[in-house]
Write a structure and sequence with these properties.
The chain is an alpha+beta fold and about 140 residues long. It has one domain (about 1-144): Aminopeptidase (3-Layer(aba) Sandwich). Helices cover about 30% and strands about 30% of the residues. It has helices at about 15-25, 30-40, 90-105, 120-125, and strands at about 1-5, 50-55, 60-65, 75-85, 110-115, 130, 140-144. The protein has a seven-stranded mixed sheet with strand order 1-2-3-4-5-7-6. β4, α3 (about 90-105) and β5 (about 110-115) form a beta-alpha-beta unit. It starts with a strand and ends with a strand.
Length: about 140
């Protein structure tokens, strides 16, 4: 398993993740590909990054770091985390989020995210994120 910073996204590499996530009712990988191809979000602003996790040439997970577009503070936002179902529980998501945290340290004072998936919420809490209530844009945050 290798975590790799993506400098140029080859969208065909995400076909398996796109198909599975769409089948499971998630839209965020479709948005990742669309926004990247349209130039809306290429994770290329200062202190942004996109990571994938690979076994050989197979992409089994993906996670991004953006400047938080909803804040004028120095906050980073975790975006588009997805791990193929067959690799969940093996540390892939944790390693991807750790890569994002490592990249964000020294650049942001806080990392935030939004999820409406209770299992994802528990995953982030295990990584040290605090759950927030009554904020429509942020469900979890981590002080860096």
């Amino acid at each position: 398993m290798i975590i790799h910073e993506v400098t140029h996204l080859v969208t065909a590499d995400l076909t398996e993740i796109l198909n599975e996530s769409t089948e499971k009712g998630f839209r965020h990988i479709h948005r990742l590909i669309h926004d990247y191809n349209e130039g809306i979000n290429r994770f290329q602003l200062d202190n942004e990054a996109l990571f994938d996790c690979r076994i050989d040439h197979r992409v089994i997970g993906v996670c991004g770091l953006n400047q938080d577009p909803f804040s004028n503070e120095d906050m980073g936002r975790i975006r588009r985390l997805y791990v193929l179902e067959e690799f969940r529980g093996q540390g892939v998501g944790k390693r991807l989020v750790e890569a994002v945290i490592h990249r964000a340290r020294g650049h942001y004072s806080k990392l935030v995210l939004r999820t409406d998936n209770p299992m994802a919420g528990e995953f982030y809490k295990k990584l040290g994120f605090r759950e927030l209530q009554n904020d429509e844009r942020i469900t979890h945050e981590l002080d860096l």
